[in-house]
Design a protein that fits this description.
Shape: elongated
CATH architecture of the largest domain: Roll
Largest sheet: 9 strands, antiparallel
Distance between the termini: 70 Å
CATH superfamily of the largest domain: DNA Polymerase III, subunit A, domain 2
Strand content: 35-45%
CATH topology of the largest domain: DNA Polymerase III, Chain A, domain 2
Helix content: 10-25%
Oligomer: single chain
Number of strands: 26
Number of helices: 7
Radius of gyration: 25 Å
Length: 369
Amino acid sequence: MKFTCNQQALSKALTIVSKAVTSRSTLPILKGILIKATLDGNLILSASDLDIAIEKKMSGINVEEEGSAVVSAKLFTDIIRKLSDEEVIFELKEGNNVNIKNSMSEFSIVGLSPDEFPEIGEIEEEDKIVFSKDLLKDMIRKTSFSASIDEAKGIIVGELIEFEENYTNMTAIDGFRMAVVREEVKNEKKQNIIIPAKILNDINKILSDIENEEEITIVLSKKKAIFLCENVKIVLRLLEGEFIKYKDILPKENKCRVIINKALFYESMERASILSREGKNNLIKFIINENLLTITSRSEEGNVKEEISVNKEGNDIEIGFNSKFVLDVLKVIDDEEIALEMVSSIKPCVIKPVSGKNFEYLILPVRIS
C-alpha cells in the first residue's frame, strides 16, 4: 500500500476517528486505526472499541498501491499532527512496517495485521430518520450532563430518545436530577432507543468537526444505530432494557412558582457557589419570600447572600440544593426568563420555560437544618 495525502486533511480525519479508540482494552488491535486505500482514490480510516465504531472516508487521494494496515492510533495521530502542512507519503513495507515521510521528516513504525481488526458492521433492517445536525447537537448538550456516570447503575448511563409522531424527546437521569428536552420533529415511525451518554457526547464532538453538512441520517435496528454525515459513519450498540418511567417522576402540581431572569440567576448562583464549594455537598439555600429570592451559602471560610427580584405565585418556601446541579442546568438554557416550580422543601424543584414545554429539569433538594 502506498498513498500521498494532505497533512491537514489527514489530521482532521484522525481527530474524528480517534474518538472510537479505547485506552482501556488489553487488546492492542483496539488501540489502533485501520487504514485502507483503494485505487479509485479513496482512503478509509476506521476505529472501534466494540461499543462504538467510526469510519471516515476521504476521496481524491493519490493512491499508487492499494492495501490496508493497522497502526497505533496515538502514535500515528501524534506523528501526523506534528508534521508540517504539506503532502505526506504513507507506505506499507514488509512485515506490517509502515513508513511515513514528507520533505523534512521520515518515520518508520510497527503496524499490526488488519486481519484481526473488528468488522464495522451494517444494519439489514433499516428505519431511517433524517435529523438536523445542529438540533441533535443542541439536544445532547442540554441533557447529557444529567446521565449517570456510574456503570453500576445500569440503564441510566444511557439517554432515552423517543421518536414521537410530532416530537423527539431526549431524557437523561442520574438519581439526583433529570433532564428532559423536547423538539418539534416529524417522525414517520414511533420508536424509542437508549444510547450511552458518553457515546452521545463523542457524537456531539464529531458533529462539531463536520462543517459542510446540515443534516444527519440515523439508521436504526433493534440492537444497533448508525449515524451518517459527510463521509462519516458511526456505528454503535444500543443499550437494552427498560428506561425509568420518567413521566411518573415529574410533579403534577406546584405550590410555589417563581419566574426569574436567567442571566441574573446564573450570575448570583456563580458567586454564591464560590463558598458552597468550600462546604459540604455544595449546599446552597433558597429563601423565597414575597417577590424576593435570597440565595445563601456558608462554610468555615465565611458566608454569602444574594438577592434577586422575582415574580412569585403561591407559597413562600425555603429549600436547599447542590449548587453544581443548578448551575449545570442554567449553563445550557438559552431562554431569557425561566420558571422554577416547587411543592415543598423536600420535594423536587422543576426548572422549565415560562411558556411551552421544550425542556424540564428536575433537581432533588438537599435537606437543610
